[in-house]
Amino acid sequence: MTFALSWSKASPLIEDPMAVFVYLTVVVGLIFMLGESKNPALKKLFHYAPPLIWTYFIPMLSTTFAIIPQESSLYGFVATYILPVGLLLLLLSANVPATLRLGPKALLMFLAGTLGVIIGGPIALAIFQPWLPEDAWKGVAALAGSWIGGSANMAAMIEAVGTPKEILSPIIVVDTVVGYSWMGIMIFLAGFQDKFNKWNKADDSIIQSVNKEMNDIQRKNERPIQVPQLLGLLGLAFGVSYIVLKIAEKLPQSAVLSTTTWTVMIISAIGILFSFTPVKKLEGYGASKVGYTAIYLLLATIGARADLTYVIDSPQYVLMGIVWLSIHILVIFIAARLLRAPLFFVAVGSQGNIGGTSSAPIVASVFQPSLAPVGLLMGIVGNVVGSYAAVLCAQLAKMVATML
């Protein structure tokens, strides 16, 4: 039994890919400029709903109201060429030795989040299967890929199980609406991390120490952005990313190792290697700032792919996603209580799974401004672990669908 409501829709007002790019760029630019406003009302608004939330929410509304299309060649271009550029530039500032000093709790919290996603999907499917089509488990497989590592793993799972479009569309909405709503809640909770850590008897002194160390290094090496260095880091990022993409196209392809997955894994390894070389000095000239710009544009295109009318047409998918995410949240907070882990580890552990490389570093930077690379490294772990954990979740979901 499925729900279906009719909804007629006009053709998008803006369809040309370049025009869509201009529109999204203007939207993101306005959002972040307003976020810096001194106006009391705007300051209060962006305190509770940071610019990042609007970066994907406004494009989503734009698609819903037929201003821009849900499908455009631009979105694939950004994911293919701009995402690797952003990842590489963000990783130049990765201080791996300092990150490792955070200890095993960070990794354990990430794995707890992974476990929550693996068991949450089949349980949520079992609850809502009577109101879903028989092959809804294929949608669970796709969402498991996204919620354990990000869009690259989602694409791999879609290819692996053959998720049909009528199931994939509401699943993308669940991914953005439910997944990014949780990211917004985590950003909001950043202001309560001291109270949480005190209640949980969690020692965050090592986090504060590493954050201060990395902040001091960034401040010491920071330079005004100069044209030669800016062009140098852009040339490096685009050049390396394009070469890696072409190499990835030649590598063996499978359900868990697509071209995108290979690209993300290789570019991440190169970025980490560069962080041990003189190339990391480009961070002093704003490499991570340019990297974040690329990631924000990617988030805008992700939001543009979601159409809120699917929430009306398929509310059961959204409810399933809420139950699924609630199980993930329950598991990770139980682990935090048992391990006496600080809220920062909860945030990066959860977002390393649910958000992946695109949002984990952003959430990490809200909690601890200099620890964005820690979130990014967690997202990379999610890419690697998620390729296999999502397959396990998909198999469990298929078993549930078969039994019911």
From TrEMBL:
Membrane-spanning segments: 20-36, 48-68, 74-94, 106-128, 167-192, 230-248, 260-279, 291-312, 318-336, 343-364, 376-397
Record's keyword annotation contains Cell division: no
Keywords recorded for this protein, A-Z: Membrane, Transmembrane, Transmembrane helix
Protein name per its UniProtKB record: Membrane protein
Origin organism lineage: Bacteria, Bacillati, Bacillota, Bacilli, Bacillales
